[in-house]
Amino acid sequence: MTGSLLNQHCFFDIIQFTEFDPRGICQFGLVADEVEKVNPDLIVRDKERKPFTVRHDAVNAMLLNEFLFKEHQNVQELETTIARQQRDFQATATRQQNEIEALTAGLQRVSAQLAAASSSLAELR
Q1: Strands 51-54 and 12-16
Q2: Does pTM top 0.70 for this prediction?
Q3: CA separation for the pair 119, 108 (Å, rounded)
Q4: What is the CA radius of gyration of the chain?
């Protein structure tokens, strides 16, 4: 995506614009010439068709759109993971229930055999 390209280049420049800000506070921003190389639609040109400024509103919208796209992918991955874990959990619960039932049946057989052996032993005495 274009936002990824833009993020890779970090076109920041620190400039003092004393003609616009008499206090001379340093400003920073994207450099139009560099942004033009990545996405010409994100710049405004002057009368001579040279890069003049960056369309920050479009950059913000593009970055927000990219963020939302990535978050949507993350949500889909999480939903897939949750669905897999639910299936695994259900399979484990079913297997454990079958094992419990088998153990219960075995215990009942052993209890019945023990009861029969106890009554046989009592008759012998």
Answers
A1: unpaired
A2: no
A3: 16
A4: 36
